[in-house]
Specification:
The protein has 328 residues and is mainly β. Helices cover 3% and strands 43% of the residues. A hairpin with a 2-residue loop joins strand 20 (310-321) and strand 21 (324-327). 47% of the residues are buried.
């Protein structure tokens, strides 16, 4: 993926989630009717945000750039920058990028520690690698490098960036990833190490588009026994010229096939639109999904068409109608 370094006032609350049934009847079906992002303040200039909530109720947000940028919030509205995950960049980064920065972190909390998958890549190529880091606190400078999970190069038909960890109900660990090239892939991991499962070399294809059309940033959610694959389509990182949009497909098994509302496989350019450009919100994508107390949240970046095209954090609640997600 080509990445760069780098309304209305609304609060989300449990009462709002309780009104979801009424709101869903008004879910927009056209881009012009999408709701504005929820009100956020502070350090909200982000790309590829991933957010979790810890046991104390604190929100931890990681995003692309530098040694992986971390932010915190106590209320999901005001965000403060807290620093880089790494005090010293892992030495292997230099094999995949000429600049000391990483992309598209994926945060989670597993087995008593914070886990972060991320990517390092040579801009505009698939000379890329997905790394793993862990921390006992999640604080800046506390992260320990665990090495390379997967890499790609000129001989690969995929791009090893944009990782997302999914842990299934049976305890199995899976990593989706991919950007452009032959699309979104899935591999199985070893829960004990967070690395590739020994002896399992299978690479499953989940979604793909015709040559020259972008798809990246996968994120898998399971709800009521159904697997949902969210992905960003088209182009990021061009300010107000960005064409990013978020689509989704669903499947009955983790490896697919994922299909859109019309039944078209995501491996054949299918995908049901979840969020597109509208009003001042340009090129929404790089998304993750967080299940919070008041429901699922779609967390993404967009370019503000009324603020010089600056990249900003977007957060919307997701409603589910007929087994499909919509923003509100």
């Amino acid at each position: 993926m080509n990445r760069i370094a780098h309304r209305r006032r609304r609060r989300f609350s449990v009462p709002l989630a309780a009104a979801a049934a009424a709101v869903l009847a008004l879910v927009p079906q056209t881009a012009l009717a999408y709701p504005a992002p929820g009100h956020v303040t502070g350090d909200i200039a982000v790309h590829d945000p991933s957010m979790i909530r810890d046991a104390t109720g604190r929100y931890l947000l990681a995003s692309t750039g530098h040694g992986l940028q971390l932010r915190t919030s106590t209320d999901r509205i005001a965000f403060a920058g807290s620093g880089d995950a790494f005090t010293t960049r892992p030495s292997w980064w230099s094999r995949y990028s000429t600049v000391p920065e990483a992309w598209a972190p994926d945060l989670s909390y597993r087995n008593g520690r914070y886990v972060m998958y991320y990517a390092v890549s040579r801009f505009g190529s698939n000379t890329s690698a997905i790394g793993l880091a862990t921390s006992t606190t999640g604080q800046p400078g506390s992260w320990t490098d665990r090495g390379i999970v997967l890499s790609s190069g000129s001989g690969s038909d995929f791009n090893a960036i944009d990782p997302n960890l999914f842990v299934d109900d049976d305890g199995s660990w899976w990593l989706s990833f991919g950007s452009w090239w032959s699309g979104i892939k899935l591999i199985r991991l070893d829960p004990a190490t967070g690395l590739r499962r020994p002896g399992d070399t299978a690479v499953h294809s989940l979604a793909a588009r015709p040559a020259g059309q972008g798809i990246e940033a996968p994120f898998i959610v399971k709800r009521e026994g159904v697997y949902y694959l969210f992905a960003s389509y088209d182009r990021c990182c061009a300010g107000t010229a960005s064409t990013y949009r978020i689509k989704v497909g669903r499947a009955t098994g983790i490896t697919g096939p994922y299909r859109d509302r019309a039944g078209v496989p995501m491996t054949a350019d299918g995908g049901t639109l979840v969020l597109d450009s509208h009003d001042r919100v340009i090129g929404p994508g790089g998304q993750s999904v967080l299940k919070d107390a008041d429901g699922h949240l779609l967390v993404y970046h967009y370019y503000d068409g009324q603020d010089g095209g600056r990249a900003k954090l977007g957060v919307n609640l997701l409603g589910w109608s007929g087994g499909w997600p919509s923003v509100y």
